[in-house]
């Protein structure tokens, strides 16, 4: 909420620097977003009086204005359509700074001298959302009693300081001037001069004869009250009220609507005004909307309602979306003569869900969501009715029509002085505690060392002992509480085995040249279902998503990585290598609660090696990524056997360039090329991906010793070329060689693959280098030959191969 410092000074005898006040509020009540003055960055803006206006000789839309700036009469060229002689206006003198730090200079416009600029509100920093619509295309007129040459800031309320507070859900009382006055008075020990305006019922007509209210379900509207104001004149509200509104970020509309917004700021009580004559029936009800019931709100949007929406109806026709926004058909217009004024408390949960469902967060709904002070509902209604009557020369009908009225709850909480000092670590006396409750204006009763506090309804966030202890602490001053170190044993901090392995996973992939990415855990429903290691069914959907792009929990990390690649590709970054370690979300057996699994995934596209004097371009391919995955799994020190099994069952991946990754017989992931059709949907080029279930890797048995000492003895190599069927897998051959290679075999390397001329049909040649080495001595030729012959014999028998 944007709190006006000058408005605060009307209710409190406070003379504290606004910045210091904001710091005190932040340390005692709620957070602060900003402290600023509307005049910050502006200078040399003065009141000017237009003495005469003449058309520009060389333009059909410019005028020459003779303006008294307080020191002299100067000529200013102006293009505003509403410029007229005899008005006081905002003048930016030569050298002035206006909105967006624009400097005004003396200049010529089509041959005519212009000694400054006549300004609209938007040009001196007012937002388009708060500048009055009547002046959208023209300059602003200052009051007739404004004196030329004086600063314009006091006339526009720009000499004020605004404290922008960030209201938490539990402190809805701070969403009003009344709440801020009460709190600031408490922690500074000041006396509040908050003023209310009593209503004068100057009509002989009874409100009950004009309109009726029937609330069948008080859960929807625990409190609902109406007044009627007759024979009013719609016009602009006075300048003091417009200043209050636009300094709070609200656009002034007319005297009726502005009063309801002013009362909203003052009391935190949302009001709604209906054009009484436009109500189709003079009986107001509150009910749930019907399925697909159409309703046009004040913003001229036609909305389809559902059975969870709450509407205020005139008869059976919706007249307002309760607590959120009024209807266009019953809105106040320039022709309005009679007003029905509503003050209510609506169900906060239903209003919050309704506002999110329709993406319609208004000043009213924000306050209804956090709670309304039941003590001031009628007070706010009466003051609003009186102001509307005063400003519109109308009459207030006699009495209030009440459809429902919830009982005011003032809980009583008992505390002992010893308990207070024990929790807060203080040594306060009962007089200190009672002084704090006096400042808070909480009623209490003291009996020995026990105090029973009656919590006023305006502080609905306080209901138990812990709440009162917090109130005592913050008014006493958090800085005044004694500081003590917690009692604990000295333990050496360290990462758990799980944390170590997850961190090592990131280090390994970064060492392999991949960059870490962090993607959203929420995505679209279609993307959430893609790239699952195992089919977990449908994703979990959010009831109230932030947007249509974030409605489902991800069941794979790859879709997020592909979004990141698309983002880079769109910005001309064509060589992208990314990985992500994070959680996916599946459902348990009841389909309600999410199960979280740690996964790790990677994606690569573009060139792995760029063209230079000694090598050609090398684009990323399946085997590059497979090598990275193999190195990662080797570094994880798994004791089981890792295999890559070709697969064509994954619709999102290329059927001929995809493999499942298994640890022994357990599926732990996959690797492959993104299917060209999927890549087209993501707007990315040829891309290769992998994903591994990190939970399975963490839980898998590990090798006791992860490294071997390097042997100081020489190695011996043997080459072998095999003629095989073209469907024989390299992994099968490598496994067979390692099986029969003996204890001295330390490496098997495939160095050549050949198919084509000079070979029989459906045959291929694979050539391997076998490396033998002993850690404890020098190998002899006989030892190596014996081991090598066993390999040859086994391959010949097992694969029906021919040694070339």
TrEMBL record:
<feature type="binding site">
    <location>
        <position position="461"/>
    </location>
    <ligand>
        <name>Mg(2+)</name>
    </ligand>
</feature>
<dbReference type="InterPro" id="IPR005121">
    <property type="entry name" value="Fdx_antiC-bd"/>
</dbReference>
<keyword id="KW-0820">tRNA-binding</keyword>
<keyword id="KW-0436">Ligase</keyword>
<dbReference type="GO" id="GO:0006432">
    <property type="term" value="P:phenylalanyl-tRNA aminoacylation"/>
</dbReference>
<dbReference type="GO" id="GO:0000287">
    <property type="term" value="F:magnesium ion binding"/>
</dbReference>
<dbReference type="InterPro" id="IPR002547">
    <property type="entry name" value="tRNA-bd_dom"/>
</dbReference>
<dbReference type="InterPro" id="IPR041616">
    <property type="entry name" value="PheRS_beta_core"/>
</dbReference>
<dbReference type="Pfam" id="PF03483">
    <property type="entry name" value="B3_4"/>
</dbReference>
<keyword id="KW-0460">Magnesium</keyword>
<comment type="similarity">
    <text>Belongs to the phenylalanyl-tRNA synthetase beta subunit family. Type 1 subfamily.</text>
</comment>
<dbReference type="InterPro" id="IPR005146">
    <property type="entry name" value="B3/B4_tRNA-bd"/>
</dbReference>
<keyword id="KW-0479">Metal-binding</keyword>
<keyword id="KW-0648">Protein biosynthesis</keyword>
<dbReference type="GO" id="GO:0140096">
    <property type="term" value="F:catalytic activity, acting on a protein"/>
</dbReference>
<dbReference type="Pfam" id="PF03484">
    <property type="entry name" value="B5"/>
</dbReference>
<dbReference type="InterPro" id="IPR036690">
    <property type="entry name" value="Fdx_antiC-bd_sf"/>
</dbReference>
<feature type="domain" description="TRNA-binding">
    <location>
        <begin position="39"/>
        <end position="153"/>
    </location>
</feature>
<feature type="binding site">
    <location>
        <position position="470"/>
    </location>
    <ligand>
        <name>Mg(2+)</name>
    </ligand>
</feature>
<keyword id="KW-0067">ATP-binding</keyword>
<dbReference type="GO" id="GO:0009328">
    <property type="term" value="C:phenylalanine-tRNA ligase complex"/>
</dbReference>
<dbReference type="Pfam" id="PF01588">
    <property type="entry name" value="tRNA_bind"/>
</dbReference>
<dbReference type="GO" id="GO:0005524">
    <property type="term" value="F:ATP binding"/>
</dbReference>
<dbReference type="InterPro" id="IPR045060">
    <property type="entry name" value="Phe-tRNA-ligase_IIc_bsu"/>
</dbReference>
<feature type="binding site">
    <location>
        <position position="467"/>
    </location>
    <ligand>
        <name>Mg(2+)</name>
    </ligand>
</feature>
<dbReference type="GO" id="GO:0000049">
    <property type="term" value="F:tRNA binding"/>
</dbReference>
<dbReference type="InterPro" id="IPR004532">
    <property type="entry name" value="Phe-tRNA-ligase_IIc_bsu_bact"/>
</dbReference>
<keyword id="KW-0547">Nucleotide-binding</keyword>
<feature type="binding site">
    <location>
        <position position="471"/>
    </location>
    <ligand>
        <name>Mg(2+)</name>
    </ligand>
</feature>
<keyword id="KW-0694">RNA-binding</keyword>
<dbReference type="GO" id="GO:0004826">
    <property type="term" value="F:phenylalanine-tRNA ligase activity"/>
</dbReference>
<comment type="subunit">
    <text>Tetramer of two alpha and two beta subunits.</text>
</comment>
<keyword id="KW-0030">Aminoacyl-tRNA synthetase</keyword>
<dbReference type="Pfam" id="PF03147">
    <property type="entry name" value="FDX-ACB"/>
</dbReference>
<protein>
    <recommendedName>
        <fullName>Phenylalanine--tRNA ligase beta subunit</fullName>
        <ecNumber>6.1.1.20</ecNumber>
    </recommendedName>
</protein>
<dbReference type="InterPro" id="IPR020825">
    <property type="entry name" value="Phe-tRNA_synthase-like_B3/B4"/>
</dbReference>
<dbReference type="InterPro" id="IPR005147">
    <property type="entry name" value="tRNA_synthase_B5-dom"/>
</dbReference>
<dbReference type="InterPro" id="IPR012340">
    <property type="entry name" value="NA-bd_OB-fold"/>
</dbReference>
<dbReference type="InterPro" id="IPR045864">
    <property type="entry name" value="aa-tRNA-synth_II/BPL/LPL"/>
</dbReference>
<dbReference type="InterPro" id="IPR033714">
    <property type="entry name" value="tRNA_bind_bactPheRS"/>
</dbReference>
<keyword id="KW-0963">Cytoplasm</keyword>
<feature type="domain" description="B5">
    <location>
        <begin position="408"/>
        <end position="483"/>
    </location>
</feature>
